[in-house]
Amino acid sequence: MKRNRMYPRLDTDMAGSGVVSQAGGVALVETIRASGLDAALSAALAPWRKPTARHDPGKVITDLALTLALGGDCLADIGLLRAEPDVFGLVASDPTVSRTIDALAADAPRALRVIDTARAMARAAVWSAAGQHAPDHRASAEAPVVIDVDATLVTAHSEKEKAAPTFKRGYGFHPLWAFADHGSDGTGEPLSFLLRKGNAGSNTAADHIRLVRAALVQLPGHRPGTRPGRKVLIRTDGAGSSHEFLGWLSRQRLSYSVGFTLPTDFADTINTIPEHGWTPAYDADRAPRGGAWVAEVTGLMNLTSWPAGMRVIVRKERPHPGAQLRITDADGHRITAFATNTKCGQLAAGTEKAGGVCGGERNCRHAPRHRFGYEWLPAFLSSNVRYRCAHPLTVASQTSGAGKSVNLDEAHQPLSVSCRGPFLGWVDGSLTCPRFPDTVVRRAFPDTKRYL
Questions:
Q1: Distance between the two ends of the chain, CA-based, in angstroms?
Q2: Nearest alpha-carbon partner for 405 in 189, 145, 128
Q3: What is the spatial distance between Cα 391 and Cα 374, in angstroms, rounded to a whole number?
Q4: Which of 236, 317, 361, 421 has the most CB atoms lying inside 10 A of its own CB?
Q5: Max Cα–Cα distance, the chain, nearest Å
Q6: What phi and psi values does residue 292 have, to the nearest 5 degrees?
Q7: How large a percentage of the chain has pLDDT more than 90?
């Protein structure tokens, strides 16, 4: 075992005598090392470390992230790591962890700001290592980096900080997320999020603007005071189709594709579109989607109060069996619409980006709240700190692994066979080593479709 900054670096062999549990966490520890997240957090949180302190606040935070990624849901579950010092090194006691969080909470805005800076540095290293698999590889107006924005509801089972009634007659929180889309074969990578009260509005433009600002800062290559331009596309559902939010996106020269609510009497207008005005829609694989067509209706609507250059595209498709049509649907088809300012490619290609509009919902759905302790929110600062590191960390491990998914259900299983020498890097989504490259992580990280 070799010490490497915060965590040991393992030398494994074929003897099988040094078997440890939680071996799947080695991949995440190696991700922390390779991305430089350990050094970045250590430097960023140095002002919060007392002169005689034994534990680095940066390691406390990464340990909490690892705990959540391995199945923990509260601060006390850090004992999961404490039981394996050969893998995770020196781990702080529960009182020390609590005191560290209290110290950060005393200046929460500053603490979260420096943690976000460290995350951005680590993300830049991971995307650089990912090469052609990175979301920003050859990004342009024709193939932009897509940021999905969506909200979700989290139930609180007791009086938590800022918990409130929700619009679905529940009780809890209404956080807002921003994900970097990795395509249909990958998972969304959380860039930023807002932990909001349960009664926070779905279409609050100020919250959307704040979230997107924070997400843009997380993109590699971002420079303060500059605009990323049309090579970044913001994608969200109808909650984002407010005049204020779309106006801000236009002023920032960002591309956007958002759900759009049609007037209640628009069904009559739909019927005036000739048959040749409809084009087959595309699916996520850019192939024609059966039973779905699109048409541009910008010229059929009064859009003077909306940002200049905005287009409105409608899509009609056959409803799923059992689905009920709405008053705005026409001719037995489900009618939906989205607004966009993109002008590249054919009309049908725009639906692939907007199909899109549900990308954020997919990412929220595949961010397992029970796995990251989301339903046990003890306090806003604690949750912000942990989610800013835990969820992105698991995605970073698969991003640097050429887009392979990570099955954390099996990450806790012990490995009895490994190899000699330190890990060298990633090959086809697995950690590899010089003498026996095909054994390590095979059990802990199968090619699964469970995205985090």
A1: 30
A2: 189
A3: 11
A4: 236
A5: 77
A6: -140, 140
A7: 28
Beta strands per DSSP E along 64-222: 145-151, 154-155, 164-165, 171-173, 176-180, 189-194
* pLDDT value of position 212: 95
- Contact yes or no for 116/222 (Cβ under 8 A): no
pLDDT digits (tens, 9 = 90+) for 115-174: 999 999 999 999 998 888 888 888 888 889 999 999 988 888 888 888 899 989 899 989
> What number of other Cβ atoms are within 10 A of residue 113's Cβ?
13
Closest to 372 (Cα-Cα) out of 17, 54, 77, 121: 77
317: its two tokens: 């498709």
Name the CATH architecture for the domain at 139-365. Alpha-Beta Complex (3.90)
Supply the pTM of this predicted model.
0.79
**Average pLDDT of the residues of the chain:** 76
Please name which of 227, 218, 348 lies closest in space to residue 294, comparing C-alpha atoms: 348
Token readout for 8 is: 């040991």
What's the rounded Cα separation, in Å, for the pair 147 and 105? Answer: 29
**In a 10 Å sphere around its CB, with 0-12 CB exposed, 13-18 middle and 19+ buried, how is residue 267 labelled?**
middle
For the chain, the 3-state helix, strand and coil shares in percent, each to the nearest 5, are: 35, 15, 45
At 131, give phi and psi (nearest 5°).
60, -125
pLDDT digits (tens, 9 = 90+) for 170-189: 999 899 999 998 877 667 78
Cα–Cα nearest to 230, from 141, 334, 336 = 141
Partners of 333 in beta bridges = 330
d(CA 355, CA 259): 10
Of 405, 406, 392, nearest to 177 (Cα)? 392
The tokens describing 178, both together, are: 């921003």
Q: Is the pLDDT of residue 384 over 50?
A: yes
Helix (H) or strand (E) holding 8: strand 7-9
- The pLDDT of 432-452, averaged and rounded, is 32
Give pLDDT tens digits for 27-57.
888 888 888 999 999 999 999 998 888 999 9
Number of CB atoms found within 10 A of residue 327's CB: 9
- State the span(s) of the chain assigned CATH 3.90.350.10: 139-365
Residue 209 near residue 245, CB atoms below 8 Å: yes
Report whether 122 contacts 129 (CB < 8 A).
no
Give the chain's length: 452
CA dihedral for 330, 331, 336, 337, sign (positive or negative)? negative
pLDDT at 193: 86
Rounded to 5 degrees, what are φ and ψ at 379? -165, 155
